[in-house]
Amino acid sequence: MLFLEHLLRDVNDVLWSRVLIAVLLGLGLWFTIKTGFVQFRYLPEMFRVIADKRTISAAGKKGTSSFQAFAISAASRVGTGNMAGVAAAIAAGGPGAVLWMWIIALLGSASGFVESTLAQVYKVPHEDQYRGGPAYYMEKGLKSRWLAVLFAITITFTYGLVFNSVQSNTISLAFENQFAIDSEVIAIILFVFTAIVIFGGLKSIANVTQIIVPVMAILYILLAIYILITNITAIPDMLTYIVSNAFGIREVAGGGFGAAIMMGIKRGLFSNEAGMGSAPNAAATAEVTHPAKQGLIQALGVFFDTILICSATAFVIITAGGFEGSKADGIQLTQNAFTFHIGDWAGGFIAIAILLFAYSSILGNYYYGETNITYIRDSKVGLFLYRIGALLMVAFGAIASFDFVWSLADLTMAIMALINLYAIARLFKIANQVLQDYRRQRKAGKDPVFYRDVLDDQEGIEYWDREQAEHSK
């Protein structure tokens, strides 16, 4: 196992430093400029559309709302990355990693807008809901079934299996650190409770996550704000420390990039997922009158994740100090920082918080895999086997090593992101035409409604004709 860990780490260093970082930053900047800085200019609009009430499904029933779709994607975003990932990034890359997390979020939110808008454009009715995501726009937009299947397999493996092992690993470390509970016990508990929810279907996932995620995020942020207020005089020095450290020359094994850049972008992408192809699977399920609405909502999710929650964690850890040379793994470093600031009880609070955050992420991750399993082949047997595999990986993650599950996650995440970024770069023209249509209607004072006949290329778009769009008014 140790040999495999070293091999994964070496492969990741080469793949990330020589390929993925340049692609993520380059495309994020290109999307930002070509869309007219959509993620900044339309920030107020994001809050308006998230409350859209028109949610009639393809079968004429109440469908998944914009907020529910946001909650499903947030369930995967908000979790281990915000608490354990940030801590690991700071420990390995120094405080400068935080600045690179901000940069990848600010640029990546444009990528998030593009991918989720495309997911809406190419969605298809499925029973009384919708299915969609990268696999759908790769096949229908790029007319590449083989690429779509490759992505579907990759995201199913990455999210339903590997990422869920990271989530359960973090829960296990937190409870072992705080309550001395054996990892085997945590594995059994997570297996049972995850099985109860995932066999209940999508609606149960949406109902659970839209309650857990906002409440815990608010509590967590408020506690972090309290810590910052009590350490207000340290903030200017902390910000200076972050910026100056971001351009340091510390190296990582096997690569040529500074540790701050490498770890900041790695953990930033793991946390906010912008451009990775995960959030579009949830975005496609929403019933909205215009695809750009879900693009804006998912772009907001990137800000919500990184600028708010990741920053809160980072500030608490940096002001506590003690992260350099620490032997604590991920979430344990966060627990130690909160305990330093406000007492021993904080370690228990973090353990409970990460349980709820990571558990909601497990549910959101599972759904991404389910969507793509159904895309490859709508088979009850295949779906059942996937569910069993997902549950086994949840149990495995709870007893596996920290380094192994994170290294495996870095590799599968990189492959998945490269496939999706290639696709959305080629389909960007469609997404940009949708955005221009949205702008024209908002400028005219309308609540935008989209029809596919405004596009130059309508091939592969099954929904959005004028008769279907009238149902969502």
UniProtKB/TrEMBL annotation:
It holds the Pfam family Na_Ala_symp. Keywords: Cell membrane, Membrane, Symport, Transmembrane, Transmembrane helix, Transport. It is a multi-pass membrane protein. Coiled coil: none annotated. InterPro entries: Na/Ala_symport. Its main location: membrane. Belongs to the alanine or glycine:cation symporter (AGCS) (TC 2.A.25) family. This is Amino-acid carrier protein AlsT. It comes from Virgibacillus dokdonensis. The gene is alsT_1.
